[in-house]
Design a protein that fits this description.
With about 350 residues, the chain is of the alpha+beta class. It folds into three domains: about 130 residues, Rossmann fold; about 140 residues, D-amino Acid Aminotransferase, Chain A, domain 1, CATH 3.30.470; about 60 residues, Dna Ligase, domain 1, CATH 3.30.1490.20. It contains twelve helices and 13 strands. Strands 8, 9, 10, 11, 12 and 13 form a six-stranded antiparallel β-sheet that branches.
């Protein structure tokens, strides 16, 4: 098949997405597909040939993508594009997607997980991997997800949504409980997540979070083990435990060598695995997600799992958690990519036949 692997974009998870896209593109080419990597934001500014020929480009136009310890400078990325318009779509992105049999969505964060690109592809009748636009948008919005979990009785820490300005920060510092967790509603890869224990740390967190949005989700802080559980198709995969080398499981710990130790399957009881897998699958279905997802949990000191959030497009780098969970049940990386393709095409055909 002709497959466009759409990656990059203009979110704080841009570099993670490019590494995901590069790995997926190479795996699909090894599987026999005519796959090509396309940066959604940069587009094909450096390409002047016929679009059809892209699918036979050497190595699928995969470069040497890497993840640095700090989040990318998006203002610099925007300045580097020749087309300085407000469009989030680079040159010929939709045109080459329309030539493909399938678009493999390798995007993360805004522009990819928030449902906007899925909606655009739906309107153009272009099949793509993963969940649809509405489910993606709800899963990306931590507040919407929290409300759904509360309504369905899925155990999650107590929370509240706080909308504020810089001038209101001093009053909030006195009002909000400590310790707590402060999150931006649409963040990912642990960007825009803070764990303040003191009033000074809370003040710093609230001020820094204003660069993402004018609102934050303030959550009860539950101390315990970081557990992650993926869903593939209609089954839960073995959970994985992540033990950061130091501090919290932040952006650097997730993507830098030696930043964390990962145990898969996690060292938990069969009953805990069943409960965590059941919660992950229940949330996946509740939000209307399809094909694959990954839910994040805290296992408290009493062995009780608390669901924090869900990712509709979890990372698929070689070092990501989803491939490790799949490997634990005998599904190699290339096979995982192929299953995502097959499940997505099956799902799109099912929707179109209704």
């Amino acid at each position: 098949m002709k497959i466009v692997v759409l990656a990059g974009g203009l979110s704080t998870e841009r570099e993670v997405s490019l590494v995901t896209g590069t790995a997926v593109c190479r795996a699909l080419r090894e599987n026999g597909h005519r796959a090509v990597l396309v940066d959604m934001f940069m587009g094909l500014e450096d390409y002047d040939g016929p679009l059809e020929a892209l699918f036979d480009a050497p190595d699928g136009r995969c470069g040497g993508a890497a993840i640095r310890s700090d989040a990318p400078d998006l203002a610099a990325v925007r300045r580097s594009r020749k087309d300085q318009s407000a469009s989030m779509l680079g040159k010929n992105v939709l045109e080459v997607c329309a030539l493909a049999d399938l678009v493999f969505v390798g995007l993360h964060g805004e522009c990819g997980e928030d449902g906007r690109i899925q909606a655009a592809l739906d309107l153009l009748g272009i099949p793509y991997t993963g969940s649809g636009h509405l489910a993606s948008a709800m899963a990306m919005d931590k507040v919407a997800t929290k409300r759904m979990m509360d309504a369905a009785g899925i155990r999650t820490p107590k929370w509240r949504l706080v909308q504020y300005t810089r001038e209101e920060v001093p009053a909030l510092v006195e009002e909000l409980p400590l310790p707590c967790v402060v999150k931006t509603p649409g963040g990912g890869s642990s960007l825009g997540v803070y764990l303040p224990d003191t009033k000074e740390e809370l003040k710093t967190a609230l001020l820094d979070a204003l660069r993402f949005d004018g609102q934050v989700l303030v959550e009860e802080k539950i101390t315990g083990r970081d557990i992650f559980a993926g869903v593939l198709g209609d089954r839960a995969l073995p959970a994985v435990e992540v033990i950061p080398a130091e501090g919290m499981f932040d952006y650097a710990a997730k993507y830098q060598s030696g930043g964390a130790q990962e145990l898969c399957p996690a060292n938990i009881t069969p009953a805990q695995q069943e409960e965590i897998g059941g919660m992950a699958l229940a949330l996946h279905r509740l939000l209307g997600l399809s094909v694959y997802s990954r839910s994040d949990f805290i296992l408290d000191g009493n062995g009780v799992p608390w669901c924090l959030e869900i990712n509709s497009l979890p990372g698929l780098t070689q070092a990501s958690l989803m491939p490790k969970e799949a490997a634990a049940v005998g599904i190699g990386y290339n096979e995982l990519c192929e299953q995502i393709v097959e499940l997505s095409l099956k799902g799109r055909k099912s929707i179109c036949s209704r």
